[in-house]
Amino acid sequence: MTITRTSHPTLPLADRAASLVGSVIDSSTSLLAGQTHDIVRLAMGSPAREAIPAAALAEVAPAAIGAGSADAFDYAATEGDPALREALLAMLEGTSDATTADRLTITAGGMQGLDLANKLFVDPGDLVAVESPTYTNGSATALSYQARLLEVPVDHEGMVVEQLRALGEARGRPKVIYTIPTFQNPSGATMSRARREALLELAREWGSVVVDDDPYRMLGFADEEVPSLHELADGDPLVFSVRTFSKIIAPGLRVGWVDTDPSLQPLLINAKQAMDTCTNLPMQRLVAAFLQAGHLQEHVAVQRQEYRRRKEAMQQALAEHLSDVARWTDPEGGFFLWVTLEGGGADGGPPDTEALFPVALAEGVAYIPGNAFSAEGRFPDALRLCFASTPPDRIHEGVRRLRVALDRMGTG
Ligand code: PMP
């Protein structure tokens, strides 16, 4: 991946400005907004437009924010609006993320949770272990605090903890271990319970913090679920959990939360006060009202079924169009699967998926190239597809177009 390093000819930028790397994923939103032809959008990891509960949100909005009271437009408490904190605690009760009020801070989405975690733990030059591939914006947050990244391979059971140990022994113990344990972005892999336990054990041994970024865990296709790292840690302060409403309600809300040991709360509050004072109060009230009205459970149940249907459609389409040139993962939830090309390029090998991208876009399909998910550029032959935001017939069409693009590359 080409990382854009910033510099300025005349202004005295901070050293850290050179560590601000752009997000290929986020930039795809503006890139695609500028296209006028028909494109099947398998790039961005957003919930399906039709899955966003816009009508239910509009229904609760007047009481939540629009009843003529100025109250919802004031500053909020930094730790979060009491109504949302209470509704969130009730939502989490009985789940693997069950928690208590003294552990919760409401944030501006998952991204702010990741920023807070890195701000609290990462000094310039510190090692942060990340999955390889990983969610770029998460590793970019670590880089923005001038971390050095340790890329740890992922297989069908998630981060390979034995390789993390070997890397840590060879290159130094990471201060932070960043993981997306469930339906990982981008691979779709879920870390097994045994791996989660091994990871916690290693983090304890090393004195590392585990940043547990688990935004998709409620979106599994089956009922059985692997316990969260939060639950398995059983109150050990080493786990810093980052969660968001972006995938289960809507990303434009920009509302999420972090769940941390209460001993961190004063520092978290200080960090957030120096950042944005408090999370957008009207949106906190809106989410609280949505939860209080009991909409979430049914909404998530419908989404899970629909996303499963879409994932199956994508598996079928891939089998139909790409089985001779690629292999791919079969996630049990979430939004994404990961395709590795094995052939189809001009020399018979796999084409570079960054070079393939403009050809695919011209054919009317968008994805995210694999190298967007590795600062070291380890995945030139891979790509991430989001199945969640596109209906099955369009998924078929998108994968068909991908094949056409590949054939065009292969024949030069
Ligand atoms: N972590 C992961 C793994 C994600 O996939 C995302 C969203 N793509 C986020 C964090 C960020 O969540 P939010 O949009 O709530 O900031």
UniProtKB/TrEMBL annotation:
Could you tell me which residue ranges the Aminotransferase class I/classII large domain spans? 38-402
Which superkingdom? Bacteria
Q: What InterPro entries does the database record attribute to this sequence?
A: Aminotransferase_I/II_large, Class-I_PLP-dep_aminotransf, PyrdxlP-dep_Trfase, PyrdxlP-dep_Trfase_major, PyrdxlP-dep_Trfase_small
**The protein's required cofactors:** pyridoxal 5'-phosphate
- CDD domains xref list: AAT_like (cd00609)
What Pfam families does UniProt report for this protein, alphabetically? Aminotran_1_2
Q: Which UniProt keywords apply?
A: Aminotransferase, Pyridoxal phosphate, Transferase
What is one Gene Ontology biological process annotated in the Swiss-Prot or TrEMBL record? alpha-amino acid metabolic process
The keyword Transferase belongs to this UniProt entry's keyword annotation:
yes
Q: What is this protein called?
A: PLP-dependent aminotransferase family protein
